[in-house]
């Protein structure tokens, strides 16, 4: 009876499209994992370094590739160089119907003083205005979070080539 249950369980896992993988391609320097200290923030907007650092750490955790920052694993250093925004579409009359936020981040992987990988990633994300200033700021913050996730996923994909 137990063997039948195990067989049915394993068959269901393999038949439903779920699988287990090691988490993507090769990392720079043939590393199995990367450490990610807090990114530098060269903008006047607080918390952006932590936002982009968190997004990269989440992407690495999802692949089983985040290492402790103990000095042994290669480290990913990042700098948030710019974040800008503005209207991206006009609504009725002269009212802005949508906004866009754009960011440029530099990432580099180093181990023992040697640069193993370096790249700039740039992208943008649209968001709708809120009914008031607080709603608009909440929409902008959500767009920044989406942008951080997509840019850090893109940077990680480039590292794994």
Written overview of the protein:
It is a single chain. The chain has a single domain, classed as Double Stranded RNA Binding Domain (2-Layer Sandwich). The chain contains three helices and four strands. The chain has helices at 2-15, 48-62, 133-159, and strands spanning 40-41, 75-90, 96-111, 114-127. A four-stranded mixed beta sheet has the order 1-2-3-4, covered by helices on one side. Strand 3 (96-111) and strand 4 (114-127) form a beta hairpin. Helix 2 crosses helix 3. The longest helix has 27 residues, at 133-159. It is elongated and about 50 Å long. The termini are far apart.
Outline of the structure:
The chain is 35% helix and 30% strand. With 161 residues, the protein is of the alpha+beta class.
Secondary structure blueprint with pairings:
Elements: H1 2-15, E1 40-41, H2 48-62, E2 75-90, E3 96-111, E4 114-127, H3 133-159
Parallel strand pairs: 1-2
Antiparallel strand pairs: 2-3, 3-4
């Amino acid at each position: 009876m137990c063997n039948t249950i195990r067989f049915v369980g394993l068959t269901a896992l393999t038949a439903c499209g779920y699988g287990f993988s090691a988490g993507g391609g090769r990392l720079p320097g043939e590393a199995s994992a990367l450490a990610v200290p807090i990114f530098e923030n060269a903008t006047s907007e607080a918390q952006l370094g932590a936002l982009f650092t968190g997004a990269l750490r989440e992407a690495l955790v999802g692949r089983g590739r985040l290492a402790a920052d103990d000095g042994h694993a290669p480290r990913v250093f990042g700098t948030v160089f710019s974040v800008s925004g503005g209207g991206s579409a006009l609504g009725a009359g002269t009212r802005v119907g949508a906004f866009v936020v754009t960011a440029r981040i530099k990432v580099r992987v180093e181990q023992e003083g040697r640069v193993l990988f370096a790249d700039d990633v740039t992208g943008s994300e649209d968001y709708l205005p809120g009914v008031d200033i607080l709603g608009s700021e909440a929409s902008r913050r959500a767009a920044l979070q989406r942008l951080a996730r997509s840019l850090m996923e893109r940077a990680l994909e480039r590292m794994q080539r």
